[in-house]
Every structure is written in structure tokens, then in C-alpha cells.
Specification:
heterodimer; A: about 90 residues; mainly beta; 4-stranded antiparallel β-sheet; 1 helix; B: about 1000 residues; alpha+beta; 6-stranded mixed β-sheet; about 25% helix; about 30% strand
Chain lengths: ~90, ~1000
Amino acid sequence: MLQIPCPWCGPRAEDDFICGTEADRKRPKDPSALSDAEWADYVFNHDNIKGNTGEQWWHFRGCGRWFVIERDTVTHEITPIEGGGMK
Amino acid sequence: MSGQFRLADGGRIDRSRPINFRFNGKQYQGFEGDTLASALMAHGVRVLARSFKYHRPRGTMSAGIEETNALVQLVGDEDEPNVPATIVKLREGLEAESVNCWPSVNFDLAAINERLWRLFPAGFYYKTFMWPASMWHFYEHFIRHMAGMGRSPKTYNADDHYEKRFHSCDVMVVGAGPAGLAAALAAGRSGARVLLVDDQREAGGDLLNTATEIDGKDAMSWVAESVAELAEMEEVIHLQNATGAGYYDHNFLTVVERGPSHGWIRERMWKVRAKEVVLATGSIERPMVFTNNDRPGVMLAGAARTFARRYGVKPGRRAVIMTNNSDAYDSAFSLADAGVDVAAIVDIRESVPETVAAKAAALGIEVISGHGIVDVDGKKSVSGVAIAPLSDPSQVRRISCDLVCTSGGWSPSIHLFSQSGAKPKWDADQLCFIPGESVQSERSTGSACGRFALHDCIGEGFAAGAEAARDSGHKAEAPNAPVTSATEPLAIEALWEVPSGRRGTRAFVDFQNDVTTGDLRLAVSEGYQSVEHVKRYTTAGMGVDQGKTGNINVIGILAQNYGLEPPEVGTTTFRPPYSPISFGVMAGIDQGQLIIPSRRTPMSDWHEKEGGFMNEAGLQYRRPLYYTKNSETIAEASRREAKTVRTSVGMYDGSPLGKIELNGPDVVKLLNMVYANSFDTLKIGMGRYGMMLHEDGRMLDDGITFRLGEEHYLMSTGSGAADSIYAHVVRMLQCEWPEWKIYATPVTAQWAGMCICGPRARDVLVKLGTDIDLDPETFKFMGIAEGTIGGFPTRIMRATYTGELSFEVNVPARHGQAVWKAIMEAGREWGITPVGGEANGILRVEKGFIAPGVEGDGTTNLFDAAHGWAFHQKKKDFIGKRSVDRDRRIGGPRKELVGLLPDDSTFVPPDGSPIIEGGTNGAAPVMVGHVTAGTFSPNLERSLTLALLMEGHSRKGEKVTISLADRTAVATVTDPIFIDPSGERMRS
């Protein structure tokens, strides 16, 4: 039961949230310009980092906002990001 | 009546309060404060159980949760299997039985296993019962009966309540022995919020079991004063009978509290988030390993001391102590104090420390150094031991006794520490694993970190508590430790097993699973190198006791066999819970109806009262599947409802349909991005069907989005998708296109939705009375209008899932039931019928209306599903476009949506039936599609299905073969729409 720090509500139990995707995952601006291989890589492949990685979380049982934290996938140490980290 | 082994005085029992109980059908008496084990021991009952595999007689070997032999079945109203007798609190009327024996524990037929022991080494079931393979099911029947211990409760006790409680605190202290009490005092005095938990009946830890002094008085006085001081602190919660069960991430711990509220709450789970944790979990003694060390009457030295001092019971009359350390001498002296004749202390150490040697001599106890026990006499009760010098096991000397007390050292309870994610390290001086570096905000104190001297436990306990309080933001100081009686240094020497000097002997390392040193050697010789593999192959440490007394001995013996040191062998992974916990406390109040709380609509009451058969229908909604009249079958009821809809009028409850309000200047940009079709030209007062895709091109959801105003839209989603589509929209708005000015508000539960459908639908609305202009020229198909109906505010949409003239009446949820009833009343003259989910299924199949999750699998795109018209190629980009473009560019044969008309028009193929080709001349048939949804149509009076079929769009008119369980059926391929293909009825 992780404790996730919502940038607006404060620290809450993990089941207040839904985990989204890698922090830097962004839909390509022009999918038609990508090759099939590049497009498939975006749709199907996700990074699975061992160690510190950025993640998007959704506080769906609270304020309803998406934000980014850094989490070490081995130790679960969490580093909050000033202002929530969404670009 | 209290038993011939009961001491006249002493102990934490109350001899003025006798308690009657039954064991294996026989009546006994004990006292308030006894456990089942101590009360039986007082009566000289030695054989409490039969071992798992060999069915050897076994007796109590410990005094606590680490008990590995004496597991009992509690019967009566507290039906519970495999409870250690050493923790069963004696209460009036308690009834318990032995497990794993038949007909009785004293005469057990399965003891034949003991004679055949050479056939049952570790892993025997991988090597036997293999041939012939066909006989396995025969063997399995017997193996199942022999395996396992105890019986699961057969009745559900509705009076047993379990609950859970959340708790946050500054400092959590696990263990209320001297170190834990000290830590709680120091933290509590600082004003920190403290939770102190301890699994015993009362605080004191090992002080309850030993004769020690603090500040010149009996140590229990110090305990009582400490407990009283803690009770006065407002910010301190102190729980006894509460086990620290698990340590999880970010200082989240669980505590299982037994019997917090007698007769009401049977168990309570605390879910604790602590800023700081102090682990004062103590240590557990381990036995020495020698031949026949499992006999009734062989027990841990500290346990013997506990029974004498804490429970006022002599564990036997004449004792031999077997040890590799000095703490066992204190146990010997306690037994002598209690009137036990201590015949000898057999010490494996060549030279015994002077202090304890002198004291033994003063008491007339013979100390035999450099020796070990090489055998134990007696099967159902110890009658003597054979000892020999370690240098020459053949030089045997026998000593008669009825009690053997062994001590192989003490193992700090590092379970919670390890569960926190940190690694233990080996203390080579004290031969035990102790906590290594913390990875969470915790620290261990007392014997839990290998500090066995009482003065150190209290002093360091104070320090740990003060540090925890400071780290949680309070000013705290550690007082000096009081004066205590001295603790003899352990001076332990390693001897992981006593060589017996003979062949064919067995020495046990895991009593509960009957694992011997021979099994460990077998595992090593068969090539198992990892301690995790040895554990699983031999099952050592896998019993109810989780190896609390056995695991370190296993590691020591493996180390010897591999030529390594114990830390190089390592420990197996510690997993919560620390000791077994009930399913009840894990469920808490989430039992029965509350396991899956169901969602209701504003009309659910009406459906239930009017004969609706309520069914789990997605997203935890319970919806009416059909309504029975005059004991109809489900088929009769649903066909009647479906026919009435097409011939007159019906109404179904569509409240679960997802609804999302979208407001703002950029709404159309969102709609164009999430849907395959375009929404640029949608006029105010109209709706448009939208098909939403996944990024990989598969169908995600479909629904109609209506335009209510300049910048005001209402999106609808599939009933099961209301939550997930809202989440999808939120994610798009916040993460991908935060620059769009759009508010999205889920309003699914705010509206009651009821769909009146059928040729008479408009007539019903007219009769009900509405200020909305119902002229078909004004209120067109797919239009939306706002106004009142029967006096209630309403939005009405001309949308349908039945293909008939339909009006979806939405009113604020609180008016739902009233409007539904009014519509049923108004429609009576046309025979209006309520319509359930089954009938809806018939109606949608007749019209070929797809359900994206049913008429599509992981390969289906919207063109395959005959919805290519919804794909607006001219849009530059929308979610799913890139993948569907690729599908179409690559081309090739695809599974496509078709209709099937079975040759036998009364036969409905089951959903999912494969469509096959080939399969003649011995070749296996190939699957070329499957039935997605089939039904018997009361409107066409024949069976029909929707199906996905390879290249189906170009196979209309052909015949195909459907594969069934026991035969095949033939059907003709058609368009996937059977009634009113031009849609005249719904546009009327």
C-alpha cells in the first residue's frame, strides 16, 4: 500500500489513485508521419525501467487531477515533482 | 482436580477461578490464565498430536506462537483448525481435538507410515504414484485424504463480526516486552502519538517467563507501572492480543487484534501508517538437532521455564537439559526451583563458563560438558536419553528422565524487519541473524536485534523510542535504564546437529512437516543449491509455524553440508503475515452482499417489486434480465417483451447508460479526436452516433453525442463503459490537450433514463402530456428536446437500441420512479410492457446493432464490423486512425461481421460457436469465424445470429458449418440486419 503524494491534496493511500503511464509518454503530434514500426512502438511498447522512473498518476478518488511523480521501481522511494509535473 | 503436575503456587494464573474444558472428549479442569497447552500439561497429557507424514506421537515443544507440534482443532462454536495449543486461551466450555489421527491420537492407524518411513523421504510424491499414469486419479483420492491437517469450519457463524480500522500515528512499537515498553514510554512521554501492540495476553514479554529484578523489585512491578503510565497518556494506544502481522511499503503495517470486544467483534485488523516504527519483537529459541528429538516430552528449555514460572506447571518430574549456550542453565535452575529433579545438563561446549557451572554445582546438578544427546528413549513419552561425547558417539551412557529441555540458541524475530524490504546480517558471535541496515523509517531494539542482556534491552529501548519520537517531529529524551538483575552472556558455540554415530536414525529439523536432517542431505545430494529450492523440495519451513524454530537450524546444517557459512546460505524470503490470520479478518465487513456492493437505478425498487429477475449486468449494476408473468420461462418472457416492443410499445430502464456533459468552445475538437466520425456539422437539438476507437484501431465504445447549445454537448457511452470513457476523456483533456477549453462532467447517476420504444411510443407520450412538440417533422430521429413531461423537467432523445420509434426520457434521478410509473400507467391501454436485458439482446441482434466488445475481438476494426461509414477519412487525425489506415493498406482476408440464418430455424447456436471449414478425410477442421450473438426472433419466428466470418462481406448467400459440442449445424450467410434494414420504423 504505497503512499502517493498528491501535489494538491497531500499524501494519500495508493488506492485513492490510478496509475497511468510513463511520465514522458506523449501522443505523437502527427501519427501519419510515422512508419508502421515507429507507430507500433508508440502504441504497444512501454518502458519498464528498473530504478528511478517518472510516472503519471490520476487522483480519481480525490481532486481528479493527473500529476507526475518519480518512483524507484525497486525501492518504491517516491520523489514528488514541484507543481505536479504535467506539461 | 487441577492435575498432578500443577504447582501449589506461583505463576500468572488465578487458582481461585477454575475453568472446565474438554480435550478429545475427556473433561479436564484448568485455571484462568492457562493456555490449553499448560492446562493439559498440568494433567500430564503428553501426546497432543500426530505428525504430518509419519504420524509420530507429538507433544508440546514450545510455549508460544512458534509451536510446531501441538496443533489442535477447536470445535463447538469456535470451530477453527490447526491452532497451536500454546496460544489457545483457556475458557469455560472450550472443546478441542487432536488433528491428523484416526481413530484417536493415542492409537492412530496411519502410524503405519512410521514403519514405512524409508519410502517417504522428501519429495517422494515426485517419484512415486507415477505409474501407471491412468491410476493417478485413484492414488489421488487417498493422498488427498492423508494430506492436510485439521478440518475447515463447515458452518458460517453469523454472530462472528470482523472489522478493519485505519490508524495513523507518529510512532508504532511492535512488542511490549522490556525493550518495547521502554520505547513506548520514551516516545509517549514526548507527546508523540504512539501505537503499542503485543501479541501476548498481557505486557511484559519474556519478563513474564523469567525471575528477574528491576530496581530491586520483581520485574513485573516495573511492567505494571509502565503499563499504567502508558494508560494515562492520551496520545498512546496500547493493544494486547494484537499481532504485528505485516510490514509493507511506506511504513504501512497491519495488526490483527483478537477478541477486542467480547461477543461482538471476533477479530479486528488495524491498517496503520506510522511515521516511525520501533520493532521490539523479541527472539525465539531454537531446539538442538539430535536423533528422535521430536518425542513428547522434548521441549525448548525456555518453554519449560515458561511453563514452570508463568503457568505454575511442572513440565515433567526428572529433566535432562541439552544445550550449546548458557541461557539454558537459567531454565534448568527455574525447573529446579519448581521442584523438578534436574538430572543433568548436557552441554556441547568443552568448557562451561564458571558462573553457571558453579551455580549448577551448588544445586547439585551434574554438568556433562563436551557431550550431546544421541538418542531419546520412549515413543509416546520420553523415558530417557542416551548421551555420548561429541568426539566418540559410540560411548553411550543412558540417563532416565521424562523431560528433555533443549536450547540451540536464540533467533531474533526479524520477520517484520525483513518484510520492510531490508536485509538481515549474521551475528557470528551469537549465531543468529540480526537486522541489517533499515530501508524504511524503522529501527529494532532489544533481543530483536540480538541484544540479550535485560539492562541493554531497557536502555536501548528508551533510546529507540526517543529517536523515533524525534524523527517524527517531537522533542524526546531517553532516560537512563534502571538497575536490573544481570543477564548471563550467551557464550554460544555452534553444533548444528549432534552426530548419532549410527545409520538409519532420524533427527528432525522441521517437526511440523516431518523434515529430517536426512531429507536435507538428500536435497543437497540431488543438487539443490539454493536455500529457496531446498525449502520447497523438503517443505522445511512451510508449515503453519513458518519455520520459526526450524529455519535457522536448516540454514546451519545446509551451510555445513555446502562448506559455507550460514550468511552465505542466506535466509528464505519472509512473507506476511507473521502468523496465520483468518479469512474473516481479511474480509472485515465486506461479506455477503457487501463483497460486491451493487449499483441501483432510481427504478430498481420497481423492477424488484414487479417480478424483475435481477442480474449482474456490468459495472456492478443489477438490472432486470426479464419480468415474469404467470410463471413464464426466461425464453417465454423475453420473447413476449421483444414482440410487444415491435408490435405495440415497451419500456426499459436505461439509467446506467453513461452520460458526460461537455461544455466549452473546444468541445468539437475533443469529439473529432476521440470519435472516428466528425462532429463539425452537428446542429443544436440533434445527436450523432459516434464510434470511439482504441489507438490500436480496435473498437472502444459507441454512443450518441447530442448538441444542446452553442458550446454545450452531452456525450453518451455504453452502459458498462461509463466510468472508463469518462476516465479516457479526462486523460485526453488533462494530459494530451490541456490547451483545449473544455469542462467534462460525468452525470450518469444524476439522470434517470427510460426508453419508450415501439410503434405506439409517441401515443404514450401524448397521453402522458408534455410541452415538447412531438411532431415528427419538428422532433426528428436523433433529435434532443428539453421541456417537461407529466409536470417533471426532462430531456428527451429520439435514440434507440431497439430499432423502433423510440423516446429516451431522461428526468432528474429523484423523479425517476414517479415518471416511470406514470409512463407505465399511460401506456396501459396499448399493453405497454417493461423490457429486460434478455429482450434487449433479442432486439439488438434482430437489428444488427453491435456491441463493440461482443461483435469485435482483438482483431476487429470498425470496417470489419460493417461500421466503416463512421470512419471519416478526411479528418487528418483521430485516435485509432493511424492503425486502421494500416489495416486497410495491408489488406488481406479479415474476419467480417455477417448474419447467419441456421437451416434449422428453431435452433439457436450458442454464442461463441466456431464456424469451421475442412475437417474431412481425417484432417482437423479450421476455424474461420465464430457466432458472436444468437437468438430466437419472436418477430420473425426463426433463429438468427450475428457472426464474425473470414471474408464474410463477400460470402453472403453461401452456406457455412457451425461446430457444436456433439455435432455440426449448417447456416446461410446474410447481411447482419434482419428487420427493417432501411430504418424506417425508428425514423417514423
